[in-house]
Specification:
By secondary structure, this protein is α+β, with helices and mostly antiparallel strands. The protein has twelve helices and 16 strands. The strands form five sheets. A four-stranded mixed sheet has the order 1-11-10-7, with helices on both faces. Strands 12-14-16-15 form a four-stranded antiparallel sheet. The protein has a three-stranded parallel sheet with strand order 3-2-6, with helices on one face. Helix 2 runs antiparallel to helix 9, helix 3 runs parallel beside helix 9 and helix 4 packs across helix 5. Bound molecules: pyridoxal-5'-phosphate.
Length: 382
């Protein structure tokens, strides 16, 4: 008989990683990281301009198959700037999912706009096109080529789906619906670098895509991020806005907008370049981890979350679906007590004090997943 045994799982993970203490996701440096960092220090170009910044942007274009990539200091500011360039203004609304990392919602609030939470699909854990269509049909109208929330009178200025754990949401459908409703799409692809949907890269479907190279992501620059787009004009605006909006001149300091210092230092870009060279190897190694889990959970009464149809996955973070909230809490408590870092999926955004009053739909699937999903250690094995 199959038995749900947390001890078994804990022992399996310890054995797989050859350690009694296993973190959720650790960086791995098996390429040119040291070499590029040393080169950068020796060149003295450690700060906001340098050859690795340009190289990183080129590499991001090539990986995501987009026309323009802009290096920025983290994934959160990438979101903020992308939304601003999509046209989000104070008092507007932005449709996103409640099942996400807090940065997604915060980036909307930084622009003094309001997040509106629409439910996710159970299999992708990302924004549901069906729920989106229902929400818009019920609550929105188009006026002067803009989408208006009929209940609040506010403009729905953008849609911000997120690719949870590197799984792809039904992004083609979402873009199609948003086009009909005159809503620009920004993809939060922070977790999905290297993932594809029907052969097309995460972040390349909408008007813009944003990425994070934080320490817990599939590859890291220590801290960092990027905005990608196929719209060259918007790409150039993103570069301008994130580099203090300075008008190029040999010595004059003139700025034509309220810009930001969201630049990625060359030192971090050096690390990013070395890591991007390793992206395919990283994916392969993490795929092996996932397949080992798959094999193990066949024999144990725990459901591994399966790769949704259409997703060519980057294997960022493996998760399981427990049978109830009680089971989830027990698993988290016991595994963490034994040195295995497991984590629940995020607390839904509208449970946080700053997002309590936000408009939302039923959230049936998000609430189901919130109670049951647990992430397991998923670092690449050397
Ligand atoms: C990591 C992450 C971010 C933010 O990236 P930072 O680089 O940490 O600012 C945004 N959205 C999602 C979904 C993330 O996982």
């Amino acid at each position: 008989m199959k038995k749900c045994n947390i001890d078994n799982t804990v022992n399996f993970i310890k054995k797989m990683y050859g350690s009694n203490e296993v973190y959720l996701h650790e960086p791995r440096f098996f390429g040119n990281e040291k070499k590029y960092l040393l080169e950068t220090i020796e060149s003295t170009f450690v700060s906001s301009v340098g050859p690795f910044v340009d190289e990183f942007e080129k590499k991001m274009c090539s990986i995501t198959e987009t026309k323009k990539a802009v290096a920025v200091s983290n994934g959160t500011c990438a979101l903020q700037v992308a939304l601003q360039l999509a046209g989000v203004k104070m008092g507007d609304e932005v449709i996103t999912q409640a099942l996400t990392f807090v940065a997604t919602a915060n980036s909307i609030s930084y622009l003094k706009a309001f997040p509106v939470f629409v439910d996710v699909d159970l299999d992708t854990m990302g924004l549901s096109p069906d729920a989106l269509e229902q929400f818009l049909t019920k609550n929105a109208k188009i006026l002067n080529n803009k989408c208006i929330n009929k209940n609040t009178g506010n403009i729905i200025a953008a849609c911000l789906p997120m690719h949870t754990f590197g799984f792809m949401c039904r992004i083609d459908k979402i873009v199609e619906i948003c086009n009909e409703w005159k809503i620009p799409v920004v993809e939060d692809a922070a977790e999905a670098l290297g993932s594809k949907y029907n052969g097309k890269s995460a972040g390349s479907f909408g008007l813009m895509g944003t990425y994070s190279l934080n320490g817990n992501k599939i590859v890291t620059s220590g801290g960092g991020g990027a905005i990608t787009t196929n719209n060259k004009k918007i790409g150039n605006q993103a570069k301008h806005l994130t580099t203090t909006a300075k008008i190029p001149h040999q010595w004059e300091y003139t700025h034509d907008k309220l810009g930001y210092n969201f630049r990625l230092p060359n030192l971090n870009a050096a690390l990013a370049c070395a890591q991007l060279e390793q992206l395919e190897k990283m994916k392969k190694s993490k795929q092996e981890v996932y397949e080992k889990y798959e094999e193990f959970f066949k024999e144990n009464d725990i459901d591994l979350v399966k790769i949704p149809n259409g997703t060519n996955w980057n294997y960022w973070l493996t998760s399981i679906m427990l049978k109830s909230e009680k089971d989830r809490n027990k698993f988290l408590k016991e595994s963490n007590k034994c040195g295995i870092m497991s984590r629940p999926i995020w607390t839904l955004m509208y449970r946080l004090p700053m997002y309590k009053k936000c408009v939302r739909d039923s959230q049936k699937n998000a609430e189901f997943l919130e109670k049951r999903i647990v992430n397991l250690p998923s670092s690449a094995i050397l």
